[in-house]
Amino acid sequence: MFAAGFDRYLRGAFRALSREARAGMNLFYGKARCGTCHSGTFQTDQSFHAIALPQVGPGKGDNQDGYADGHDDFGRERVTGLPVDRFRFRTPALRNIALTAPYGHTGAYNTLEAIVRHYIDPANALRQYATDQAVLPARPDLDALDFVVQNDFGRVEAIAQANEALPVELSDREVRDLLAFLHALTDPAALDLRAEVPRKVPSGLPVWD
């Protein structure tokens, strides 16, 4: 029976994690402070936090002060109505995280390393975000809207000022170790899910085209 390396490690198979993954685990729950929010069985506190992620896409209809184009996304505030919740988004679970790119609530980062490096200094990572790293669907009707917020200094600065994640100093080696641990949260069985496809569904429609 397959299981993520981290699960096998917790069950006593201490060789299930490489030296790098073990170092990354210690960083995750220690110096890097990832475990503060990515906690519990699924590595999420199910809460909402502002971590200065880039705004990609046409927005959710919200407007920062001075704007009326609807390109902003206020996150949790859209539900609670509380300004303190502006730009807060739910902590994602990290199970099978190596298979779930792109990362961030808007998919702003296409690689696991890129999102990890964002956490080193979230506010400055937002300010320096290179829009060409976003992998977006071919939608010519939306091209002009994808980076309206991200290309506006005032709007970006408002997101940066709402950031709650403190910067952390991580070397390139420590980033690699963290990535090794994150890969150890992926179950090898999830790489091929063909056996999970049902032979039939209640609607009677064909499962395969």
Write structural notes for this entry.
This protein has a domain of 107 residues. It is globular, with a radius of gyration of 19 Å. It has seven helices and two strands. It is mainly alpha-helical and 209 residues long. The longest helix has 12 residues.
Which terms would index this structure?
209 residues, mainly alpha, single chain
Instruction: Summarize the helix and strand pattern as letters.
Output: HHEHEHHHH
Principal-axes geometry comes out as globular
Class computed from helices, strands and strand pairing: mainly alpha
> Could you give a short account of the major beta sheet?
2 strands, antiparallel
Strand order in the largest sheet: 1-2
Runs in which pLDDT lies below 50 for 5 or more consecutive residues are: none
Question: Tally of extended strands?
Answer: 2
Gap between N and C termini: 31 Å
Note the beta-strand portion: under 5%
DSSP helix fraction: 25-40%
- Radius of gyration, taken over Cα atoms and rounded to an integer in Å: 19 Å
Helix tally equals 7
Mean pLDDT: 92
Write the layout of secondary structure elements.
Elements: H1 5-10, H2 19-28, E1 48-49, H3 77-80, E2 89-90, H4 112-118, H5 122-127, H6 153-161, H7 172-183
Antiparallel strand pairs: 1-2
Helix pairs in contact: 2-7, 4-7
Compact overview of the structure:
This protein has a domain at 48-89 and 105-169. 26% of the residues lie in helices and 2% in strands. The protein contains seven helices and two strands.
